[in-house]
Design brief:
Layout: E1 6-10, H1 17-30, E2 34-37, H2 47-51, E3 57-60, E4 63-64, H3 70-83, E5 88-93, H4 106-119, E6 129-131, H5 136-145, E7 148-149, H6 156-166, E8 171-172, E9 175-180, H7 184-199, H8 202-209, H9 215-218, H10 224-230, E10 233-234, H11 236-248, E11 254-258, H12 266-277
Helix pairs in contact: 1-12, 3-4, 4-5, 6-11, 7-10, 11-12
Length: about 280
């Protein structure tokens, strides 16, 4: 799929349903290649985004495998594919332990879920799905059974690691949260507020400990160097430089999530597009 080098990632908590179609149109007009819908969406939620645009790829970031039966998900994918051929990328993920009481053996669960997508009456092709992955085993599974991986809340070092693990070919498409705000103190406070939740989740915290951070960095809402690494802040040009650093580390596609603004962030996305595309 032609995702382009840069895309956008939106949360339904910040851009609500009635505004998401507008966000999709704006993303396409500004030249972004893909729009990722987060928040563990049900797949039909992407239909308005596809209907509002002509060529934009719409991706899920991610459908939670604990919340779906694979046959149902495959049927919903087939229905959308019939209406919008070649424009939907199915991102699936295991979520985190705090989100479900059923969480156990995540690698086995993901492999079984992908088996179900393959065995469905209308299978989801491997090159039309990607897997959220942080650790080496899930990364390997993403390369073997899908287009590649969509990591979330990761520093550049993880992107470099993912590319080294997967080699050339599989997709590496990290999400990059950012704050476009030229007021340093306010930008840092926004970034720290966003990061607080993820630093309390075991899978994200454990992953950061593998990439140059320690328990002191995770304490007290995160050290400055940790926050700067996972949630870059500043002007659109400074944020664009961080996105390009992920590309330089081996990413094929970086999807940027701007935080600190409720609703469709027209100004921030426009500035970001100017900085990324000229």
């Amino acid at each position: 799929m032609q995702l382009g080098t840069f895309g956008l990632w939106i949360s339904p908590r910040r851009i609500r349903g009635e505004d998401q179609a507008e966000a999709a149109r704006l993303a396409e007009q500004l030249g972004f290649g893909a729009l990722w819908l987060g928040g563990s969406p049900q797949l039909p939620a992407v239909r308005p985004l596809l209907a509002a645009t002509r060529e934009l790829v719409v991706a899920t970031g991610i459908v939670n495998v604990w919340q779906y039966e694979p046959e149902q998900l495959a049927a919903e994918f087939a229905e959308l594919e019939a209406g919008f051929p070649g424009r939907l990328l199915l991102g699936v993920g295991i979520g985190h332990p705090e989100a479900t009481g059923e969480y156990a053996r995540p690698l086995t669960k993901m492999a079984s879920f992908l088996d179900g997508l393959d065995a469905a009456p209308a299978p989801v092709p491997a090159d039309r799905r990607c897997v959220a992955a942080l650790g080496p085993k899930m990364l390997a599974l993403s390369a073997e059974r899908s287009l590649g991986t969509h990591p979330y809340f990761v520093p550049v070092e993880h992107t470099r690691f993912a590319r080294q693990q997967l080699g050339a070919g599989p997709l590496v498409a990290p999400e990059l949260t950012c704050v476009i705000d030229r007021r340093p103190e306010r930008a840092a406070a926004t970034a720290r507020e966003f990061a607080r939740t993820y630093l309390e989740l075991r899978n994200y915290a454990s992953n950061l400990l593998r990439f140059g951070f320690d328990e002191r960095d995770l304490a007290d809402d995160g050290s400055d160097r940790l926050i700067d690494a996972v949630v870059p802040q500043g002007s659109a040009e400074e944020v664009a430089a961080s996105a390009r650093a992920h590309i330089g580390a081996g990413a094929d596609h970086v999807c940027l999530q701007t935080v600190g603004v409720e609703g469709v962030p027209h100004e921030q996305w426009t500035e970001l597009a100017r900085a990324l595309f000229g």
